[in-house]
């Protein structure tokens, strides 16, 4: 199995709209052609205003979530101020880059809300970071991004953005063998976080 095949497993999607930001991912955990679990969680909250969705190895996703959550909590405690989403994305980028010789096998969509508004970033396993309005990563990304680009508008209501995220992932599931079994979605707005889980 090639490095590229491992790093791209699964499907994760993110959308930024005027009323908030949404991330989602399907629940199947696979290794090559084998399904390890049908209830994997690939979407993680960070505090009450940030979240990540990931594709790749489930252990690496979980470890990155724990490291990043701890680092953000520590820095906010020391400085007595809230970390901006951009600073948190740069911190995650630095963490990923510091492991470049033995990288985390995971592609990340990082989203959040701060005084500057809503933000969505895409990061690769060695820390490249790009801000965008929408993104899809993983083996189902080519299918999911086609759905998003057909229907995405910046002025979508947050509920509609969640529906579009689910539709894009559902479409990827129908064509990608290593994606499936359900969808987890997190929506972030100035009012807080909404979580939704769908079993297929």
Number of domains: 1
Category by helix and strand content: alpha+beta
Extended strand count = 12
Biggest sheet strand line-up: 10-1-2-11-12
Radius of gyration: 16 Å
Helix content: 25-40%
Please state the second-level CATH architecture.
Answer: 4-Layer Sandwich
C-alpha geometry: globular
Descriptive account of the structure:
This protein has 200 residues and is an alpha+beta fold. It is 35% helix and 35% strand. The protein is built from five helices and twelve strands. The protein has helices spanning 3-7, 58-79, 85-98, 141-151, 158-175, and strands spanning 11-17, 20-26, 29-31, 34-37, 43-46, 50-56, 106-114, 117-123, 129-131, 134-138, 183-189, 192-198. The strands form three sheets. The chain has a five-stranded antiparallel beta sheet, with helices on one face. A five-stranded antiparallel beta sheet has the order 5-6-7-8-9. A hairpin with a 3-residue loop joins β5 (43-46) and β6 (50-56). α4 runs antiparallel to α5 (158-175). The chain starts with a helix and ends with a strand. The model is unreliable at 1-8 (pLDDT under 50).
Quick tags:
EC 3.4.25.1, five-stranded antiparallel beta sheet, proteasome, 35% helix, Glutamine Phosphoribosylpyrophosphate, subunit 1, domain 1, 35% strand, 200 residues, alpha+beta, threonine protease, 12 strands, disordered N terminus, autocatalytic cleavage
In short:
It holds the Pfam family Proteasome. The protein is α+β, with helices and mostly antiparallel strands and 200 residues long.
